[in-house]
C-alpha cells in the first residue's frame, strides 16, 4: 500500500508541472501573436507601411531611423530632401547629445565639422562684467559637452542614417491632406515633386512632424502659436571666441544677443528683435555692435554689411494633448519655446527616445487604437517629468528676464546675473537645467524664486532704513513680477496635460 501511494504521488507531480507549463506557454503565445507575430502577419510594405511620418527634419529623421531599426516599416513624406538652410537648430545641449547617443545616432554629427561646446560666457553690458557658466562634469570628472553645427548638415546626417535602414522609405512629396475614416486618421494624401497627381498611403499610425509652420496643426489641436520676437542672424567668419568652446550671451540694455561657433570658420550671431521687424533692419542690427565685446565687434559689423540677414520667429506653443486615434503630433508642430536657451533639439530627440521605448515595450501592435491613446496620455506626463517642462519654462522665463521690458524685470535680471556670481549651487544648479543634464521641475522653480528673493535681499541691503516702507513696496513689486512670469508658464504646461 505504501508503494502505491508513492507511485500516485509521483504521477501527480509531473502532471501538475505539465499543466502549469502549458498554461504559461499558452499565455505567452497569446502575447506573442498580439505583438510582433501579429505585425509580421500583416506583411507591411512600403506601399502598406506600419507607420507614416510627415516631415524629415530632426525629429522625423531620427524617429524614422530608430523605428526602422526596430523592425517597423516606415514611410517618410518630406517636401524637399535637399539640405535645409536655417539659422536656428544649431546648438545641441549636453543632455541632447547624450540622448542622441542613447538613440544610436551619434554618427549624424560625425564628419560635419561640428564644434564642441563646453558652456557659456554671459556678458552683462550694464555692469560691464561677465560670468563663465561651464557645463557640469560627468562621473569621470570631465566637462560634459554639447555640439554646435550647421543645421542642414545635421539633418542630412540623420536622413542618411534613416535612409540606410531597409525598413524606411523616403518620398519627396508635399503632404496635402490627412485621410480620415470613422473618426480616426488612416493615412495621408500627397503629391510627389514634379507631379500633379494625388497619391494616398495608408497606415495604422501617422506621425505629424512638419515643423514650426505645420500645415496640419490647426486641424488637430486648438493651441495657437504666439510670436514675441524674431531672431535675426548672420554668419561671422573666423571670429575669435572670448573663451574657447563656449557660446556667448550678450545682455544689452534692450535685447539679448546669442553667439556660438558652428564650424571651424563660421560663428553664428543671433540678435533678438522684439515685436515686428523694422524696415531699416540692417541699421537696426548695426546699432547692436555698440554693445558687442571688442573681439566680436569687427567680425560682427563685417558680417552684417556683407552677408544676408535672415530672420526666424521666436515662437511659443505650449504642448496641447492630441487624443485623436491614428495620429501623433510631435516636434515644433506640437511644442515650441523661445530658442534663446537652445533646448529645442533636445526636446525633439528626447521625445523620440520616449516613443521608441513606448513602441518597444507597450505598443507591439499600433493597430490597437485604445492602447495608442493610453500611451499618448502617459507620454504627455512623462515628457514633462523628463525634460519638456524645464526646457519650455526656462526658455520663456529667461527670455522675459533677459529682454527686461520693465524696471522690475531689470531688477530680476540684475539679480540673476549676481546670483550666478555667487558660485557653488547658485551656478551649478542653473547650469544643470540649462544643459538639460538634470531637468528637474522643482529645481527650476526653486532657483527661479531664489533669484527673486536674492533681488529682494539686495534691495533691502542697498536702501537706507528710513525708506523701509518704500523698500517693502519695491520688493513686493519684484516678487509679484516674478510670480507673473513663472506661474502662467507653469499653468500652460500642466493645464494642457490635465486636459489629457
Give structural attributes:
500 residues; single chain; 7-stranded mixed β-sheet; globular; alpha/beta; 17 strands
Give an overview in words.
By secondary structure, the chain is an alpha/beta fold. The chain has helices spanning 2-34, 36-41, 58-69, 94-102, 151-163, 217-220, 281-287, 294-306, 344-361, 369-403, 407-421, 425-434, 441-462, 468-498; strands at residues 51-54, 74-78, 91-92, 115-117, 119-124, 129-134, 146-148, 168-181, 184-192, 198-202, 205-208, 226-237, 246-251, 256-261, 266-274, 310-316, 327-329. The strands form three sheets. It has a seven-stranded mixed sheet. Strands 6-5-13-14-15-12-16 form a seven-stranded mixed sheet, with helices on both faces. Helix 3 packs parallel to helix 9 (344-361), helix 4 (94-102) runs parallel beside helix 9 (344-361) and helix 11 (407-421) packs across helix 13. The radius of gyration is 27 Å and the shape is globular.
Brief summary of the model shown:
This protein is α/β, with parallel strands linked by helices and 500 residues long.
Measured by DSSP, the beta-strand proportion falls in 15-25%
Helicity range of the residues?
40-55%
**Strand order of the biggest β-sheet:** 10-9-8-2-1-11-17
Mean pLDDT: 91
- Major sheet details: 7 strands, mixed
Look at the helices and sheets and give the structural class: alpha/beta
* pLDDT < 50 runs, ≥5 residues: 1-35
E-strand count: 17
Oligomer: single chain
Give the N-to-C terminal Cα separation.
Answer: 68 Å
Q: What overall geometry do the principal axes of the alpha carbons give? A: globular
Rg value: 27 Å
Number of helices: 14
Amino acid at each position: 500500500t505504501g508503494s502505491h501511494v508513492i507511485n500516485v504521488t509521483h504521477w501527480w507531480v509531473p502532471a501538475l508541472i505539465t499543466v502549469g507549463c502549458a498554461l504559461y506557454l499558452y499565455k505567452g503565445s497569446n502575447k506573442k501573436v498580439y505583438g510582433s507575430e501579429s505585425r509580421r502577419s500583416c506583411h507591411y510594405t512600403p506601399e502598406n507601411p506600419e507607420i507614416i511620418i510627415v516631415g524629415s527634419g530632426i525629429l522625423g529623421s531620427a524617429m524614422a531611423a530608430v523605428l526602422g531599426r526596430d523592425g517597423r516599416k516606415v514611410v517618410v513624406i518630406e517636401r524637399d530632401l535637399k539640405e535645409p538652410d536655417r539659422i536656428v537648430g544649431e546648438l545641441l545641449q549636453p543632455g541632447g547629445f547624450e540622448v542622441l547617443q542613447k538613440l544610436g545616432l551619434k554618427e549624424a554629427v560625425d564628419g560635419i565639422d561640428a564644434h564642441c561646446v563646453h558652456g557659456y560666457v554671459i556678458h552683462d553690458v550694464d555692469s560691464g562684467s561677465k560670468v563663465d557658466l561651464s557645463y557640469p562634469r560627468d562621473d569621470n570628472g570631465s566637462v560634459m559637452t554639447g555640439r554646435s553645427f550647421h543645421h542642414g548638415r545635421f539633418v542630412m546626417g540623420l536622413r542618411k542614417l534613416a535612409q540606410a535602414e531597409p525598413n524606411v522609405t523616403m518620398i519627396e512629396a508635399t503632404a496635402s491632406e490627412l485621410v480620415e475614416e470613422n473618426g480616426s486618421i488612416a493615412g495621408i494624401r500627397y503629391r510627389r515633386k514634379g507631379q500633379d497627381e494625388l497619391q494616398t498611403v495608408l497606415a495604422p499610425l501617422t506621425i505629424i512632424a512638419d515643423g514650426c509652420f505645420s500645415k496640419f496643426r490647426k486641424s488637430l489641436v486648438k493651441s495657437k502659436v504666439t510670436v514675441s520676437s524674431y531672431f535675426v542672424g548672420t554668419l561671422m567668419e573666423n571670429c575669435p571666441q572670448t573663451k574657447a568652446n563656449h557660446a556667448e550671451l550678450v545682455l544689452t540694455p534692450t535685447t539679448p544677443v546669442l553667439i556660438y561657433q558652428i564650424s571651424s570658420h563660421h560663428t553664428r550671431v543671433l540678435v533678438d528683435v522684439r515685436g515686428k521687424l523694422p524696415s531699416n533692419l540692417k541699421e537696426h542690427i548695426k546699432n547692436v555692435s555698440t554693445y558687442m565685446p571688442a573681439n566680436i565687434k569687427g567680425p560682427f559689423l563685417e558680417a552684417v554689411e556683407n552677408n544676408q540677414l535672415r530672420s526666424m520667429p521666436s515662437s511659443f506653443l505650449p504642448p496641447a494633448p492630441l487624443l485623436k486615434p491614428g495620429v501623433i503630433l510631435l516636434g515644433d508642430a506640437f511644442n515650441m519655446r523661445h530658442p534663446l536657451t537652445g533646448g529645442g533639439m533636445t526636446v525633439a530627440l528626447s521625445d523620440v527616445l520616449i516613443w521608441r521605448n513606448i513602441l518597444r515595450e507597450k505598443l507591439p501592435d499600433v493597430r490597437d487604437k485604445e492602447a495608442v491613446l493610453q500611451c499618448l496620455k502617459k507620454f504627455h506626463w512623462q515628457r514633462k517629468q523628463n525634460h519638456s517642462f524645464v526646457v519650455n519654462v526656462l526658455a520663456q522665463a529667461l527670455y522675459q528676464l533677459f529682454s527686461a521690458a520693465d524696471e522690475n524685470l531689470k531688477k530680476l535680471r540684475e539679480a540673476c546675473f549676481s546670483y550666478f556670481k555667487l558660485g557653488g549651487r547658485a551656478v551649478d544648479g542653473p547650469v544643470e537645467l540649462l544643459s538639460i543634464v538634470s531637468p528637474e521641475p522643482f529645481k527650476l522653480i526653486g532657483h527661479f524664486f531664489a533669484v527673486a528673493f536674492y533681488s529682494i535681499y539686495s534691495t533691502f541691503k542697498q536702501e537706507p532704513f528710513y525708506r523701509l516702507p518704500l523698500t517693502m513696496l519695491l520688493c513686493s513689486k519684484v516678487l509679484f513680477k516674478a510670480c507673473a512670469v513663472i506661474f502662467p508658464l507653469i499653468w500652460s504646461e500642466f493645464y494642457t496635460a490635465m486636459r489629457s
